[in-house]
Design a protein that fits this description.
By secondary structure, this protein is mostly beta strands. It has a single domain, classed as Thiol Ester Dehydrase, Chain A (Roll). The chain has 1 helix and 4 strands. It has a 4-stranded antiparallel β-sheet. The relative contact order is 0.36. It holds the Pfam family FabA.
Length: 79
Amino acid sequence: MAQTAGAISMFKMGLENAGSVFLLTIDNAKFRRPVVPGDQMLLRVKKMKQRGNISKFACIAEVDGVKVAEADVSAMTGV
């Protein structure tokens, strides 16, 4: 989920080929059930806020429409 948030953040800022993304925090992480080989996991990432080059995201992972994990993630981009 954190990798997806970082990739989306870089893309939205137009920085696909510049700098790095650094994971800063993972808050409120909940793992609701295991994801096993063969499952197709859908990651939903929503940017909650941004201040400068630091963004906070709400992330949800789903398998077959059922939430299997969630977390709030902060990342710093373009360094």
